[in-house]
Amino acid sequence: MENLTAFSKYLPHSDRDVLWQIYCTCVGFSKIPPGASYPFRPKEHPPGYVFKWERGRTLNEYQIIFITKGSGKFRSANAGTANIKEGFAFILFPGEKHSYHPDPDISWDEYWVGFRGEYPEKLENNGFISRCNSVLHPGLQETIIESFHTILEIARREPTGFQQKLGGSIITLIARLLSFSQQKEQGTEVDLLVQRARCLFEEYIYDHIEMKDLAKILNIDYSEFRKIFKKYTGMSPYQYFLNLKINRAKNLLSQDNYSIKEIAYKLAFENQYYFSRLFKSKTGIPPSAWHG
Fold it and tell me: CA of 69: how far to CAs of 31, 34, 277, in Å?
């Protein structure tokens, strides 16, 4: 998230956006340090969104909160109280009182998105999402974080038709959350290690991170991590991370909103010349010739 510790945005919508049957109300991301007050940076949120654990809160929209690090608690009128850990998500429903907070000594990293419309109402009415089973455990999946990054990027730029683009991305996010949550079989330790690494790569895609530091986060010796990851994916962790950045660069180049220099900076490359050489070596063409 471009070295940000917190970002939030509350979005406008038109009558035409409502006809799309799903529109976005708010999006955000926070890396909350241990001991910080919660909600984090309350002055950056409208009064109706700020709450205390003891009193709770009721919204007139749906929200999805996804925790990628840390732990805490969630409670709602229908689901009761649940312990939340990394890889968990929970859904907030309109008109239902709820509350949640990270553990003070551990805290958590969170993504969230709020939305309204006839489409999510139909999902609830048809039993795809439930107030009694509002806590999901999809695990730390890179595609879920990718969905949140897409939503955040659209919300930042507000391009033409942004509410329709956000609606489609939210539907994709919901589908991924439900799909991964429904998978009953747990992976092996190697599966979980690689899955966690991929998730971290997606988290740090706009940053620079040393692979040895990544291994420390995963609590594994770097040489062992490199050996396992390469055997599992066919490439070293560093090359995988570079490929991920190049794929994100392709998406950004296709949007025609960024210069090559801006994309190089956004993806934390050393400079635009190194980025251009790397892009050409990976794709066979320079970034200036990429049109998606």
Answer: 9, 12, 35
